[in-house]
Write a structure and sequence with these properties.
With 206 residues, the chain is an alpha/beta fold. 25% of the residues lie in helices and 21% in strands. The chain contains five helices and ten strands; from the N terminus they run βαββαβαββαβαβββ. The chain has helices at 14-25, 47-57, 85-94, 127-136, 158-165; strands at residues 3-6, 30-32, 39-43, 67-69, 99-104, 118-122, 140-144, 171-174, 184-187, 194-197. Strands 1-8-2-3-7-4-6-5-9-10 form a ten-stranded mixed beta sheet, sandwiched between helices. Helix 1 (14-25) crosses helix 4 (127-136). It is globular, with a radius of gyration of 16 Å. The termini are far apart.
């Protein structure tokens, strides 16, 4: 049975944040708000938790397309090869924001992702998500929670999310209603930016 915990974005309660971080550190799965749709995440360093998410999504961990949710750009070199000035300027302009950037993966990626040529990096413009990552001390591996409903692709109500995911995750954060538009995905691993998916993030920043 998952627990529902209410956290306000403007002034996230430190005790509530600590509770979420403790769940992540102990290998738990957490559903949390972003600046787009709600995400399903776990500690990037916890192999069992990573395998749980992969099982839920029905994919092999090594071949998964999970994103790394970061606090800011300061630890980018832990996961991404050295990037040029133009790429860095795009990231600075767009983040935090509703974008996922595909970048060339570094040799220091966590073990399950070692063979990846690219990684998806996300810094959502959402206080709750970013403070959790900051307190945890490293990224959350994340994936959007999609809905099987043909009309409603993403569930936006945290209580309905809890109802659906109750037996699959350990904690659901109620950070208010989520959006139903996912992030814009931009591939910056080649010489020119490639739009993989147009979502909430405007393309006018490029």
């Amino acid at each position: 049975m998952a627990e529902l915990i209410r956290i306000y974005e403007e002034n996230p309660n430190p005790k509530a944040i600590k509770k979420v971080v403790d769940v992540l550190r102990s290998g738990g799965l957490v559903i949390y708000p972003t600046d787009t749709v709600y995400g399903l995440g776990c500690d990037i360093t916890n192999l069992k938790a990573l395998e749980r998410i992969a099982r839920i999504k029905g994919v092999k961990l090594q071949k998964s397309n999970f994103s790394f949710i970061c606090y800011d750009l300061s630890n980018l070199s832990d996961y991404v090869k050295q990037i040029d000035t133009t790429t860095f300027k795009i990231l600075k302009r767009a983040l935090p924001g509703p974008y996922t950037f595909i970048l060339p993966g570094s040799n220091t990626l966590p073990h399950p992702f070692k063979k990846r040529k690219t990684v998806g990096i996300r810094i959502p413009d959402n206080n709750i998500a970013r403070i959790i990552v900051e307190q945890l001390g490293h990224p959350i591996v994340s994936t959007s929670i999609r809905d099987e409903d043909e009309i409603i692709e993403y569930t936006t109500d945290p209580e309905l999310i809890l109802e659906k995911w109750d037996n699959l995750v350990d904690l659901v954060i109620d950070g208010g209603y989520g959006d139903n538009l996912a992030s814009t995905i931009i591939d910056l691993s080649e010489s020119q930016p490639i739009v993989v998916r147009e979502g909430k993030g405007s393309l006018e920043i490029f």
